[in-house]
User: What shape does this take?
Amino acid sequence: MASLTVRKLDEALKASLRLRAAQNGRSVEDEVRMILREAAERPAAASVPRAPETKAATRSTRTHAAADRPRLTLIIGGGIAAYKALDLIRRLKDRGIHVRCVMTRAAQQFVTPLTAGALADERCYTDLFDAQSEFDAGHIRLARDTDLIVVAPATADLMAKMAQGHADDLATAILLATNRPVLLAPAMNPLMWINAATRRNVAQLARDGAHFIGPNSGEMAEANEAGVGRMSEPLEIAAAADALLRPPPARSLSGKRILITAGPTHEPIDPVRYIANRSSGKQGFAIAASAAAAGADVTLISGPVDLDDPAGVHVIHVESARDMLAQVEAALPADIAIFAAAVADWRVANAGEQKIKKTSGGMPQLALVENPDILATVSKLRQNRPALVIGFAAETENLIENATSKLKRKGCDWIVANDVSPSTGIMGGDRNTVHVLTLDNGNVAVDSWPVMTKEDVAEALVAKIAATRA
Ligand code: C5P
Assistant: This one.
């Protein structure tokens, strides 16, 4: 295979390669590989009819998203918990974070650079002096070309080296050369964790500005051992990293009272059976959390969900649509109301007081009656109508058309429309693709957002509300 030396390229080309690589979150070496791969594939691809590109899959969208993503360097230390670092890569990527991995020599006894590289979509760096790489990444660039460094697992040895300022391998050299925040997820045997030397090192690293997550207490890999020393779970580490990566939200909704509905409703058939739907409540809960983080006084009225109450939010749990309406009315007045709940349109008219028995006399006949429409009721209030009323439209066909007619029919100000066809995985999933329809003097404007996590949709919605209210 021909090899290529980057030093033979002219300076302008090298600069543009570096820029492209940085924008795409890749090393220069990987960027060149990508360009060569695309160029090599082009003639063959030309003879094959191309499938129409969806918006989410277009090159410009991907490039833009990659450039916008926060960048994180994950240093994987040599401990049994290294296997959890592989899951951590996925969890970080789920949050839209670009991950670049570095492994110590000891870590490679537990997991391979190939696996980490495949999960991160970028080669995993292992050597301080990388003779194989003609496009030397350099520990200084690895130390700076990132927004956060996470060390997971942070072993006792790695922390001791950090506390002493050693730099005898790539991981420690990066940690010494960086001016970015560092998050450590310690993992070790409980006796090592409480050892006076580790205590001194941890205290020194905290004084030096390192952030810590964990360790948790629990069972150790060693048989019959338990105590404090288990590495925090990947989800916990990803959340802590995310919190460090994203600047604290502006308190843009401070002083505003916001009422939010979320989740499904359960409509009883009898005391043990009910009619429900697949809503998870995740989007409404994420909006409540974002609004609270933006300083709003938030009341969340939720149908039955399997989610923890968001911090700093007043949560009222209800079962049926009628309970939900009663609690919404009791929670008014509010400045803003967001109806994200998937309220059941119908309830059973003759819900049994006792469990309906299976008899030989045939099937029970369930007569349905319409539930109150909470969104329409609040939108049409003469008194106490919130200044901004936002509804949701979950559709499986003719999304914008149906959402537009819903916007006008229900009398709200905005509709957040999303396609919940089973193929989208939105219902119950972690991502959402929404279109925000706003009504201004009878004209409907559509703002279409790319696929995002439900947390990002929530933040964007809160930002849009704050901008409108300003
Ligand atoms: O079910 P539908 O598509 O009409 O829901 C659109 C909007 O209306 C959503 O915001 C939902 O929360 C709200 N809604 C409601 N009460 C109902 C039905 C729907 O508040 N009974």
Notes: The CA atoms of residues 433 and 450 lie 6 Å apart. The pocket of cytidine-5'-monophosphate is lined by residues 261, 321, 339, 341, 343, 345, 371, 373-375, 391-394, 406 (CB under 6 Å). The domain at 257-348+364-469 is CATH 3.40.50.10300 (Rossmann fold). The longest helix spans residues 28-46.
